[in-house]
Amino acid sequence: MGKKKVRAVLKLELQAGKATPAPPVGTALGPHGINIMEFTKAYNERTAQQAGDVVPALITIFEDRSFSFVLKTPPAVQLLKRAAGVDKGSAKPNREKIGRVTRQQLRQIVELKRKDLNAYEPDAAMKMIEGTARSMGLERRTSGSGLTPATRSRWSAVRSFCPTAPVRRFASRFSLSETGRGRPRRPAPTLSVATTW
């Protein structure tokens, strides 16, 4: 028996366990003459354990009006919104930041979506998810400032004397040692070699 001839391939993003014959399902599948109720029943059964998620379905429709479908991982946008605790992305992502996600959260999303990403290397996949986060107005939150408790304490003392002093500028101009002394940073010395012939 030969392979069935494919008529169309469609992708629908639906709420897990809640697919109905109403649009967008009916609108997308109706023109192809397949049994919509059969699809919605099968989809809801297979996604019942993922209630609350948007689970894309890649549907292959054959010439004899039969069909098959495979489930994909939830969209990265949805996973990022859940990780950041926000309902929607920023309308002006370059200017208005709406939340933050940690590197660990980004890594978890990469692991979940790896099979659906067009990236073979973990670093490339991470950059793709980070790019999606930036386009939504999300910032990557670091696990810490990288400062020792003593240094943070001295920065707090500086801010108490001058609350409006920008800490970043102070940090860029001074190198705080554990002895408590702040001294201006100096450029590294350069060596010049004079050659006599």
List keywords for this structure.
197 residues, alpha+beta, Ribosomal protein L11, N-terminal domain, Arc Repressor Mutant, subunit A, 3 domains, 3-stranded antiparallel sheet, two-stranded parallel sheet, 7 helices, 7 strands, 36% helix, elongated, disordered C terminus
Architecture overview:
The protein has 197 residues and is an alpha+beta fold. The protein has three domains: 6-71, Ribosomal protein L11, N-terminal domain (2-Layer Sandwich), CATH 3.30.1550.10; 76-141, Arc Repressor Mutant, subunit A, CATH 1.10.10; 149-179, no CATH class. 36% of the residues lie in helices and 19% in strands. It is built from seven helices and seven strands; from the N terminus they run βααββαβααβααββ. The protein has helices at residues 25-29, 36-46, 76-84, 103-113, 122-135, 149-161, 167-173; strands spanning 6-15, 54-62, 67-71, 99-102, 138-141, 174-176, 182-184. The strands form three sheets. A three-stranded antiparallel sheet has the order 1-2-3, with no helix packed on it. It has a two-stranded parallel sheet with strand order 4-5. A two-stranded antiparallel sheet has the order 6-7. A hairpin with a 5-residue loop joins strand 6 and strand 7 (182-184). Helix 3 runs antiparallel to helix 4 (103-113). The chain is elongated. Residues 144-149, 167-182 and 191-197 have low confidence and may be disordered.
